[in-house]
Specification:
Blueprint lengths: L3 E6 L9 E5 L9 H10 L1 H10 L7 E5 L7 E5 L11 H18 L4 E4 L11 H16 L7 E6 L2 H11 L1
Parallel strand pairs: 1-6, 2-4, 2-5, 5-6
Antiparallel strand pairs: 3-4
Helix pairs in contact: 3-4, 4-5
Bound molecules: ligand AR6.
């Protein structure tokens, strides 16, 4: 059965799934935006676990437990800082989605949610990022048939509309 793709508007830290994805920084040091919300909800053990991972290069992904979250795992990935689009940003953003899904599949994750990686502090234009996100997830899921559901978790109503249009 093909995986179900959907978009919702929610605080990703509240979702009850096998995994949620975090838009982190390369030091895995915690921060603002979705990263801050996830660290606050997961509790201080998450920062401790992240310190032990020794960072994560842009485009790659790392896994931790979910600690106080309802999600079992957190998959941390680092989006590119938007510099106009000619510095490899689309390839790096696509790598975030591919590497996160690959790590999810390796841990038997069936249902997971992504935030709109890179589109806050890192400045990636939402329309472009959403296209790359949806296309990359669609393509990558062909290789991972254990994944049943992927949710694009949007923070604003406007972002949700963009994702819903791409998925519709
Ligand atoms: N749930 C879902 N989405 C959220 C939430 C939330 N609770 N909070 C924000 N968003 P950003 P980035 C949306 O800035 O651009 C951090 O400081 C937000 O509206 O969180 O990849 C890290 O430590 C936007 O659409 O991540 C890094 O230093 C999307 O999540 C840096 O920001 C991503 O915005 C990463 O920047």
């Amino acid at each position: 059965m093909p995986a179900k793709l959907s978009a919702i508007r929610a605080d990703i830290a509240t979702l009850s799934l096998d995994a949620i994805v975090n838009a982190a920084n390369s030091a895995l040091a915690g921060g603002g935006g979705v990263d801050g919300a996830i660290h606050r909800a997961a509790g201080p053990e998450l920062a401790q676990a992240c310190r032990q991972l020794g960072g994560c290069p842009t485009g790659e992904a790392r896994l931790t437990e979910g600690y106080n979250l309802r999600a079992r795992y957190i998959i941390h990935t680092v989006g590119p800082v938007w510099k106009g689009g000619n510095c490899g940003e689309p390839q790096l953003l696509a790598a975030c989605y591919r590497n996160a899904l690959s790590l999810a599949a390796a841990h038997d994750v069936r249902r997971l949610a992504f935030p709109s990686i890179g589109t806050g502090v890192y400045g990636y234009p939402l329309d472009l990022a959403a296209k790359t996100a949806v296309n990359t997830v669609r393509e990558t899921l062909r290789d991972f048939d254990g994944i049943e559901e992927v949710i694009f978790c949007c923070f604003s109503a406007g972002d949700l509309q963009v994702y819903q249009r791409l998925l519709g």
